[in-house]
């Protein structure tokens, strides 16, 4: 009996093998393989973004883009370029982000069913990132393009304008138009209150932007109230974002320093830095300015040893002003003070771990300008030259 059962089982097994071999799928095509790799790299990029590892995320998205380029789907290419741009923005590599957003706009022209929101949304990102870099002429050009597209299809208070209004507010703040920045931030909040889509986050962002605009106008009481409202909103969220909370705490601490409330500022700096170090880490480019402000607060509190320790974390070129001073000193030794004085204002933009510094010429004047690359961490001039 047992032998008969073994025979039946063996025959069944052989039949299963024959059936399985007859139903074996052909190997995946190169396009299928590329699409599988695309999805895998994109998922890795998403995971890195969720873990605040922005440069790593950008690397995975670039790998996904190479796969998308091989299987030729325009929508995948354009959207992945946007993901790269967003990751670069969070990594404070604003120039790189602008480049990828421009590539995404170019790629979208090949996308037959591109959303009418796609190009204006990318232009808004370009406006904000160029404003952060001090590339105000480019920011204004992108803003005019964005407004033209918006005015042709949207009402003034359409919720789709939210990110665009925020970009305008950032540009206004960076160019010293503080009253305009305040008005734009208030417009953003008014529209956000009318929309149910992600309302809590949008209101928190709007309050922070309004607070920054008030601070730029030296209205520190109003600034403190707005930023505190935004911070409280971020803290109450179901899944609080430590980066948003940490940056809001640092902004609020800076406002308290303006009002000479040093003890309160120190507590907020400690809380904010703690949140940021646990999420984006101490080496993120945005930390240099925060460490510098915290060190200044420690000095005001009569704690010079602690201030020196914190300042060392910021590096020897922690901010735009320090990078410009270092570049100017190097240029002057080679090109002469008079030559450099003619190239003011000097511009400096943070690109990852280096500052890119260059002079300016009056509009319409021919000629070259001095340029330099300065390490944020060491303060060394890594490259220096002068155009013709």
As a percent range, the share of helical residues equals 55-70%
How much strand content do the residues show? Answer: 5-15%
Give the integer mean of the pLDDT values: 89
Largest sheet at a glance?
Answer: 4 strands, antiparallel
C-alpha-based Rg, rounded: 26 Å
Strand order of the largest sheet: 1-2-3-4
Number of strands: 4
User: How many alpha or pi helices?
Assistant: 17
Describe the global form: globular
Succession of helices and strands: HHHHHHHHHHHHHHHHHEEEE
Summing up helix and strand content along with how strands pair, one would put the structural category as: mainly alpha
Distance between the termini: 98 Å
**Which ranges are low-confidence, i.e. pLDDT below 50, for 5 or more consecutive residues?**
5-11, 13-20
What does this structure look like?
The chain is built from 17 helices and four strands. With 388 residues, the protein is mostly helical. Strand 1 and strand 2 form a beta hairpin. The protein is globular, with a radius of gyration of 26 Å. About 4% of the residues have low confidence.
């Amino acid at each position: 009996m047992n032998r008969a059962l073994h025979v039946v089982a063996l025959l069944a097994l052989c039949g299963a093998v024959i059936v399985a071999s007859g139903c074996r799928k052909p190997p995946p095509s190169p396009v299928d393989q590329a699409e599988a790799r695309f999805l895998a790299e994109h998922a890795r990029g998403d995971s890195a973004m969720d873990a605040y590892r922005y440069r790593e995320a950008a690397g995975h998205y670039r790998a996904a883009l190479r796969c998308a380029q091989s299987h030729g789907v325009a929508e995948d290419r354009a959207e992945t370029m946007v993901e790269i741009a967003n990751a670069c923005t969070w990594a404070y590599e604003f120039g790189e982000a602008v480049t990828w957003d421009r590539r995404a706009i170019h790629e979208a022209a090949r996308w037959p069913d591109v959303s009418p929101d796609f190009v204006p949304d990318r232009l808004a990102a370009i406006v904000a990132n160029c404003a952060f870099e001090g590339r105000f002429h480019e920011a204004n050009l992108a803003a005019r393009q964005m407004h033209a597209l918006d005015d042709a299809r949207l009402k003034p208070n359409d919720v789709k304008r939210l990110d665009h209004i925020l970009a305008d507010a950032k540009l206004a703040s960076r160019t010293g138009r503080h009253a305009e920045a305040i008005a734009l931030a208030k417009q953003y909040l008014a529209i956000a209150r009318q929309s149910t889509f992600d309302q809590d986050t949008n209101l928190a962002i709007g309050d922070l932007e309004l607070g920054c605009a008030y601070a730029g106008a030296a209205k520190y009481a109003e600034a403190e109230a707005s930023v505190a409202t935004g911070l409280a909103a971020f803290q109450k969220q179901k899944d609080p974002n430590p980066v948003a909370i940490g940056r809001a705490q640092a902004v609020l601490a800076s406002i308290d320093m303006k009002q000479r409330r040093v003890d309160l500022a120190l507590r907020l700096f400690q809380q904010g830095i703690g949140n940021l170090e646990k999420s984006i880490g101490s080496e993120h480019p945005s930390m240099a300015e925060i460490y510098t402000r915290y060190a200044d607060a420690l000095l005001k509190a009569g704690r010079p040893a602690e201030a020196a320790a914190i300042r060392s974390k910021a590096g020897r070129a922690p901010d735009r002003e320090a990078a410009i001073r270092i570049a100017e000193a190097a240029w002057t030794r080679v090109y002469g003070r008079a030559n450099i004085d003619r190239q003011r204002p000097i511009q400096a933009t943070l690109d990852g771990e280096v500052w890119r510094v260059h002079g300016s010429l009056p509009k319409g004047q021919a000629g070259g300008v001095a340029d330099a690359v300065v390490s944020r961490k060491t303060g060394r001039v890594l490259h220096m030259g002068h155009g013709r």
